[in-house]
Amino acid sequence: MDNNELHIENQFLGSGWSFPVTFRKETHSLAISKYIENVNQSIFIINNTNFGERCLLPTFGSVLQQFIFRTIDETLFGEISEALKTTLLHNEPRINVEEVDVTISDELNTTLNIAVYYKFNETNSRHNYVFPFHLNEGTNLQHS
Fold first, then answer.
1. What is the Cα–Cα distance from 99 to 17, expressed in whole angstroms?
2. Quick check: is 139 in a domain?
3. Residue 64 pLDDT more than 50?
4. N or C, where is the chain less crowded by C-beta within 10 Å?
């Protein structure tokens, strides 16, 4: 990808407040996320927002919370994959989700890694984003 193509892609992806919202002490300004980082933060925010949490955007968010405490099996993986594809289709117009891969990330089967593979609509360049999804409530109990 040459510099001109990279500039066009970056313009399309834009920028916005970083998440979580933070301030830069040295410049007395908000921290800004740009380009791919901005898209990945958007995916994170969408997947961690329940429907109805945003009063003015009641259809914004995902249904991931409905999967907590479910039995971990291939059916669950498929349901999460389809739910995220639909959620991102409706909430993140800059990308086209190609695949969502769900895997178990720990030996206690309490956390899933969800990898979202996507292309940017404007430029067709491929990227991915992986985030953990905790199926069980966290505790301080030690397993023997």
1. 27
2. no
3. yes
4. C
